[in-house]
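REQUEST ID: PR-0412
SUBMITTED BY: lab tech R.K.
PRIORITY: routine
TASK: structure prediction, single protein chain
INPUT:
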Amino acid sequence: MKWVTFQLLDAGAAGERTGVLSGDVIYAMPPGVTLLDLVGGGPDGLRAAGEDVQRSPAAVVQLADVRLMAPIPRPPSIRDSLCFLDHMRNCQAALGAGRELSDTWYRIPAFYFACPATVLGPYDDAPTAPGSAWQDFELEIAAIIGSSGSDLRDLTVEEAEQAIVGYTIFNDWSARDLQQMESQLGIGQGKGKDSAVTLGPYLVTPDELEPYRRDGKLDLRVSALVNDTMIGSGSTAEMDWTFGEVISYISRGVTLRPGDVIGSGTVPTCTLVEHLSRTALESFPGWLHDGDVVTLQVQGLGETRQTVRASRPPHPLAARPNPDATAAPGRVNRAPARVPYTRGLHEVANRVWAWTLPDGGYGWSNAGLIAGDGASLLVDTLFDLALTREMLTAMKPITLSAPITDALITHSNGDHTHGNQLLDRSVRIIAAKGTADEIAHGRAPEMLAMMQTGNLGPVATPYTRDRFGHFDFSGIKVRNADQTFDHDLTVEVGGRQVNLLNLGPAHTAADSVVHVPDAGVLFAGDLLFIGCTPIVWAGPIANWVTACDTMIALDAPTVVPGHGPVTDPDGIRALRGYLVHVAEQAEAAYHKGLSWAEAAETIDLGEYATWLDAERVVVNVYQRYRELDPDTPQLQVLALLVMQAEWLAKRCS
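STATUS: complete
OUTPUT:
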């Protein structure tokens, strides 16, 4: 028997109704009778009520004429358990902790309390957790408690099974980044598991599922899809802890109530987080975004299908002072500046502007605008949507009469691309082919939330939170290039000639610069860092040195770097000197037999030691060693960031 709770689509109808679904017809109970009322009679009472209503319904309603709600829209309580230990093994492995579980997982079943106030129906829109960039779903089933009275306390396993009045699909919507941070408090689930729980579409009574029971467990085939693409599948028979065992444990010293919901935990593979791999982030399907459609299918229980909707940003809370933390050194970019190095828009030549964001460290990048007659070209967007909106708003007095018609993306890093989606669809985005390829195959932007919420150890955790904690990586869908070029491209912008040159690979696989000959301005992208240390993600370093020579030869008196204050060709010469210095020092260490880590540890940075983010020398030495010895193991970005943090901590101690 399938029980439903519904609302009539007729605008004149009000209130919730409940009834038995048979085919496409609902046999409705009288108004005011709820399924929560009926489950108090236990399995026998619910069966009798169902038989009665099918004989003498208060109304007969077509399924097409109703909106199905959660079978029990306001349950007395929701407990979600973890009955599938492979789910936990897969999650641990995905987050780099291995598959071995501690002994406690084998001794008691885990559960936590979810929020009854956030229950959704099977087809309702599902809000993201405010402030989360890692929204996820979890395909589960739930058992609904039916019997009432004193016999629902201190249950045996057999008594617990008999207390189940029905089953339904359960979607445990999860904010993995918030969950990851809250887990470090060690007191259980919080806002990471608080945004929504989906129940539905029906409550199916146990007798109807008996054909699927194998060795005391329900063997229901399940599938989870996002935008109709299969994410995972499996069977509920994979449970390590049965519902009877979990409910027996939950009832120790506690009287359960009719309508209490007990989730099974996630069927292995039927959630996004299990498909995450720190060593192969490019293969991850990505977290959920606004507009994604999540479909959960369970044999015998039906299907839920919901559209994800973005929530409003949360109201921020100021962090408390940590009396045990080592104070981070002050960060001031002291490099000379041709224009004031302040946050905002600066005209650096006739109708050419630079947008600068001090201090030039991770994420604090520059962009630019070149205006002609009735048209403008934008150079890069910024690290998150809020920063990009701020910049585009500041540019409006210019772009109202000279709208942005083209945008050049200098390279693939997120602090130069994450705001692309805010550009009007009429804007032609241009990039070097190598840049477009890196964007297409790169990691999802929201993965950067790992730097804000992950526990990377006592040294790296405060380091990455300090460097990346200012940015909001939620809601970003990187828009890629509409047009690509290989080596060079000339664009006319409102009667002005603008030259685009790809001088990579160097910082990344392709690195473009923008030269405005009539204004004597060069936008160098991340081929140029001023007052802060460059970082070689791709190389070879020799190619970056050659790129510096090419930029110097353009003889532009005004040079806008990707990070740091506006400079001139002497700024390019300074960066070139750094690259040569590091390459020579690393090569000398290599020939002495030092490991790359030892070389980075002992390097003498000389005059470059005062540049911000000096710890990036770890990556730069590592890349030089990889050039000298291709057998040098390839390390992931996260591992290199941890090593940077440790290098800096030693230098500051």
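NOTES: Residues 569-591 form the longest helix (23 residues).
REVIEWED BY: pending
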